[in-house]
Automatic annotation (TrEMBL):
InterPro entries, per the entry: RNaseH_sf, Tc1-like_DDE_dom, Transpos_IS630-like
Sequence ranges assigned to domain Tc1-like transposase DDE in this UniProt record: 287-403
One GO molecular-function entry: nucleic acid binding
Top-rank lineage group of the source organism: Eukaryota
PANTHER family listed in its UniProt record: TRANSPOSASE
This protein's name: Tc1-like transposase DDE domain-containing protein
Pfam family, one: DDE_3
Species whose genome carries this gene: Circinella minor
Amino acid sequence: MSHNMNTRFFYEDGTGGIFDEQGQEAPSYVEDKSFRLKKLTDLRKYIKNQEVQVEARSPADTEMKEAEPKKERDLQYNIYTFEDRKRYFYFLKEKLMKPKQAATAANVNYDTARKWKQTYEDDPERNIPIKKTNKTIYRIVSQLNEAHKFHLINFFDEDCTATIQDAVEDLTAKFADLDIKKSRIAEFMKEECNLSIKVVSRHPVARNKEENLQKRADWVEKWVQNGMDYLKNCIFVDESGFDINMRRSRGWSPRGSKSITETPSTKATSHSVLGAISAIGVVNMKLRESGNLKRRKVMGATKRKAPEGQLSVPKGTTGEHYLQFISDTMDIMDEFSGMKGYFIIMDNAPIHVPEIIDPIIMQRGYTPVYLPPYSPELNPIEQFWSIIKAKVRRTKLSDIETLTTRIIEASEAVPIVHLENIIQHSVNQFEKCQNKMPL
């Protein structure tokens, strides 16, 4: 897009400051107060798509019939010899095949092979039968013992991002007579220390401080005593950001080459989506529309505040957006008698202004509940967003799709049993909170 030489564009730095493309302070500006919301889906549409029954009904009278006798199953059992076991463990241990591949190669039923493997893992003293080959296999007696095991476990407890090389150096510094390869350490970590590599979850330092552990314990005790039941009388509200460049974080590529996906060179517009879910379905999903957010040109190049210069600054979800969304959500809840008196669970974000929102919620017959700080595990909708984003990322958008249509499709396709499961997962954290355990 072209513009004349007198036109300059200014941007927000994320902390409230407005600067031009050279980093100079902007002239004066005004904020756009528009807070329109676009409907994506709601509980009525969700029920229609899922074909679920929300309102409880009395069970219909049914005629009791005698159940038909079960047909006898024709069971066939395979009889395996000791040689079959040796052949399976040969493929598993010497050829380093995966358990299912080893079972197939050895012509052994996978369930049977899995039981064999578990039996030997449960009893380390038992010698694993190995198929003899023409090659003599020499196995060096391990230098690593219980002392090394506990040292490694403590080492990675202190720094889970340390590398295997770091572990080797730390071990050899601690145990002077130890001379061992990195590959053996890796094998020992996996088999003896029960350690595995995972994606690192980064938590704020304050997350599990004593004061926040206490706040979680107090929160659970207070609201459970007040009749809050996540699976029976709660709705969970939150917002999340989506953009058109969302891609899967992992990808396939030929060995030795990077996995690369091309994205537009310009920063994609971020869409803020407000959502509300419960154990009976997706209650409300709305997109925060930007309204009239044209960037207006600011004349002049000086750093002085120019009274005639104005810039319209797109903002994130504001208190007005949130209040409108809560009001719309309660309108939907009013249509379902079973949701009367529900608890509305929210995090403690700055846009959730209790002195404004709480009276409105309580006037409508609902109860506002604010989660303790640093407690995303207690809000099931956090997992819901992960499910939706995974569905949005699954494939490239077709010519007839938009990010909005993909979000709608994903939201309406989440089975109610999945909603129940992610809510139950949050309920399972209550005991940890009561015992002041880290989340």
